[in-house]
Amino acid sequence: MGTLIKNQLCAEGIAKRYGSFVALDDVSISVRAGEFLTLLGPSGSGKTTLLMILAGFVDPSAGRLLEDGVDITRRPPEKRNFGMVFQGYALFPHMSVFDNVAFALRVRKVDASARRERVTRILDVVGLGAHSHKRPHQLSGGQQQRVAIARALVFEPELLLLDEPLSALDKNMREQLQVELRRIHRQVGTTFMFVTHDQEEALALSTRIAIFDKGELVQIDTPEQIYACPVNRFVGEFLGKMNVFALDSQREDGEITLGNCGAAVLRAKSCGGCGPKVLAVRPEHMKLHVRPPIPSTDNVVMGTIVERMFHGSRTTFSIRTSVGNSTGCNVLIDAPPDHPARTLGSTAPVWLSWCPSNSILLAA
Length: 364
Ligand SMILES: Nc1ncnc2c1ncn2[C@@H]1O[C@H](COP(=O)(O)OP(=O)(O)OP(=O)(O)O)[C@@H](O)[C@H]1O
Prior knowledge:
It is a single chain. By secondary structure, the protein is an alpha+beta fold. It has eight helices and 22 strands. It has helices at residues 47-55, 97-107, 112-125, 141-153, 171-188, 199-205, 223-228, 233-238; strands at residues 7-18, 21-32, 36-40, 62-67, 70-71, 82-85, 159-163, 191-196, 208-213, 216-221, 243-246, 249-250, 255-258, 264-267, 269-270, 277-281, 287-289, 299-310, 315-321, 329-335, 349-354, 359-363. Helix 2 packs across helix 3, helix 2 (97-107) runs parallel beside helix 4 and helix 3 crosses helix 4 (141-153). InterPro entries: AAA+_ATPase (IPR003593), ABC_SmlMolc_Importer (IPR050093), ABC_transporter-like_ATP-bd (IPR003439), ABC_transporter-like_CS (IPR017871), Mo/tungstate-bd_C_term_dom (IPR008995), P-loop_NTPase (IPR027417), Transp-assoc_OB_typ2 (IPR013611). This is Spermidine/putrescine ABC transporter ATPase subunit.
């Protein structure tokens, strides 16, 4: 028997219009109990608007919100029992870490001994047990954000809404806090709904990712599934690097002909969508050869090296292929720094090969 998935919160046909501008267009999304769901999309795609509607700070122009089947669309924010963490920490500067976290409980009239016990426990969860007496200005940015997370979790919300909570931190601190967030999520078991425009962060943290573009929900699935099978070129390119070839023609069986220079015949799996397609391959699935590869069932195209960039643990080659469209295509591929192609001149031929099952046909 399959696992029964419990939907904790359902947004049905949510729209938000500001005058004639459509910030959200008919978005339906279900949040599953206990998951780490990330809303990912470019700036202005509607992620924060949806989070604010779920929190109750913004009214939708259309649609409704159901929590465990109960309509909460018009319920005020303070009655929703959702925690919120923003990019700015908004801590009280004159209060200690302990009092900042205890504040939410004092407002809810939790008695002093229960308050002490709950604040101590949640400060331990976020790793700040030894800092409870400090003021916010005595903490690093990452520690202040952990206070904000503790404050949002201490009243045991059913759902934690996090809007770009790591974006003000430097790269190292950000990566540390990503690991912390995953651990905290696992430890407390609360449902997390997280907004970011950082693709790697979304892939690393989430149990599911919802991709937004221009106010529409384009795809929602596990990180692995979206990465391997994006529904269109926008999603594929937004979620990681992708080499894309224009298509000349396509046969029913997934065999396609590329380009007008020697016309390589390639095979691909289709990821659905109608209309014009492109052939897309993730760079890590491509192999770079300095001699024609031994004939196999792999796809093979020829090209020349345009540029090479040394990154220490790898070298990125930019390769112009003779297939794609009339001017050819530029392909980026990473190889070990000692790859034999490192010594080749710019006109020397190279070959790229990849397994057909790793090329996908995407709606352009
Ligand atoms: N109060 C408002 N009045 C008019 N337009 C608004 C208002 N709030 C948001 N918008 C517009 O709605 C669109 C979606 O905004 P939103 O903040 O949800 O995007 P986002 O995906 O969270 O972007 P970012 O990553 O930059 O925060 C934007 O074009 C924004 O300018």
